[in-house]
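Two entries, shown back to back:
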Amino acid sequence: MNQMSHVSSLSVPGATRATRKEAASVEFRNVTKRYGKVTAVDSVSFSIAPGELVTLLGPSGCGKTTTLRMIAGLEMASEGQILIGNRDVTNLSAADRDVSMVFQSYALFPHMSVLENVAYGPSVQGVPKKDAQAMAMEKLGLVGLTGLEKRAPSELSGGQQQRVAVARALVLEPQVLLFDEPLSNLDAKLRRRVREDIRELQQSLNLTVAYVTHDQEEALAVSDRIIVMSNARIAQTGAPRELYEEPADLFVADFIGDANILDGTLLDREGTEARVRIGGMVLTLPHRGANPGPVKLAVRPDAVLLEEGPAGDGVLAGTVRKASYLGTQVEYDVESPIGTLFVVQYGRKEPIAPGTPVSVTLTRQRGVALIPNA
């Protein structure tokens, strides 16, 4: 039983009233968090504009969840300053910050109905029961759960439970909404649906959202901007396309989507462009501040084109070693003079058989970038 009605339900009458509170900015100024001798977050500075969805992305242990918990007031900063709506909240408790969080586990009360779960926040703040339930019903309408208010959490699907958690976070109309790995308990198809719902809800209500995930595809799909974290610091901040097409270093190139990291030689520069030799090929690419000499390049799997048959001038000779048919695409491992290449081709019905000689070319337009800090 899966009643994942899409958030076209956002058009309910209550949606206009839910926007009455102004979205707030979030700012970190040289914030550090230590646990004894361990530094979990190391002098991090960033800002989130009002009504913006910013994702903190990175591998386990990089500091992203600690950063989110410091926005919430669930962890206190060891150094630095945290501002929400230009108000210094560094030393304020979670209850005084006007922030709500949707936890990875949803943290629903199993003995309460859906309505009671969502009305719980206003009730403990002293709102009369009738008013608290009216507020809860409005938010359940926003997330498409009208009609399910009497059910227990155990009677809902995973996607529906996630929506209850969102409604409960929204009911107090916080200045900032926080998501901690909100889709990790859902299957792949449901994750795509729910992330679209979250994004539509955020844009419709003009919410300021900080969103934590380790899933690169999820971050690319929902974010206005992404903050990539590595080893307790910020590796790069930018729009999804910027991070994918112009990674600042090898870590970001390898972490944001798949990338072939290749060696090349920057021959010369003219204006913003450079000629770069990769094996027997010469490409013209933005030099991104790199100087003549050895360079590293990030080459996306779909920027590598394969043609069956021997290679001609100006292209690489390769041999298919492995081919995996995945329905909408075929993935290849191709042996070449510049190393083993991971290649993705879309829309091809018949995979090239392993052992087949191929010519290999790279297309700048589809994802080849110099790494300036390699």
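entry 2 starts here
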Amino acid sequence: MVAFGALPPYRNPVLNIKNTQLDPLDLFDIRSELSEEESMVRESVARFVDDAVIPLMREAFEQHKFPMELVPQVAELGLFGSSIDGYECAGLNSVSYGLICQELERGDSGLRSFVSVQSSLVMFPIYSYGSDEQKDRWLPAMARGEAIGCFGLTEPHGGSDPGNMKTHAKRDGDDWVINGAKMWITNGSIADVALVWAMTDDGVRGFLVEKDTPGFTAQEIENKFSLRASVTSALFLDNVRVPDANVLPGVTGLKGPLSCLTQARYGISWGVIGAAQACLDEALKYSQERVLFDRPVSHSQAMQIRLADMARRITTGQLLALRLGRIKDAGNLTPSQVSLAKWNNCRAALDIARDARDILGGAGISAEYVPVRHMLNLESVITYEGTETVHQLVIGKELTGVNAFG
């Protein structure tokens, strides 16, 4: 037993409290936990978003148009395939990739979706499962933004059950013949190559289908009220013939597409924090400037409680994402951990966007302010790469050991 006299003298914790003003968008000073390289990545992407992205996004959203002029700048910053080593990619760690997604989505979910698809859903599987020839052909071109890819998994009959895939590929000599359709495909009609997942006699395989291949068509989906600054398409494959050299040789079965989704969900877990921060920032400014009953709205208890709740959710999401990134960089990530983060952070961001829109009152429905745009975008983000229910059931299975899907 240690005698009380041997213990160090008691220090009043009050003396260690700092009186400096906290950053409203980073109450737990997450930035101080970043390495020098991670901080440089965040700051450079944040400047790009402030200077080049945000000024374009209102008009892009209103016009239902993806701002292609941003692609060379994104490539110049090294944001495509940023976690890949070699092939003209930046070779950054997972936390840096998360910070990239956070800052891009602070601008708009459509731009983060574009980068996520290019990086996590096309470049990642080519790098992980592709042949040397496939890597050499596509990865440097995609890193430079000279080639755009899309990921064809979801089908018209439903996206939550990829094991029930209808698109199929049959061997024909040295070629494969693919028939089927894919739906809700980001980048589909502007892509140079589609990574199409199809059922074969041996299980699900990935096929690189180039845009001019006979029988392959991509039709843009119009009249969206969400992700309007993003290209979303339907893919149709009618006896599309591709050579065996276009098949990803390194994976067979659902492991292939599901591992890609894990990468994308990881980025989403970070990205939605940026959208939530943009909404809180707008709500704070508006509540401080808006005067009702002879005082700023921000001076009321009700408003401060609402703003504090937004900050609580953002802080929780930041800590969850950072911990997830450190686990990923240590090589210990599990899909269930990603599901928990995607579920929690998407729900928090959507709730924050909705409340921020309400705080702005009538102005909240105007595109002059960001909450309604983020709110509409997040309705898609909470759905794609696994709905909220799917991720809840993933965690339920993790807790109980029982698969309750179906």
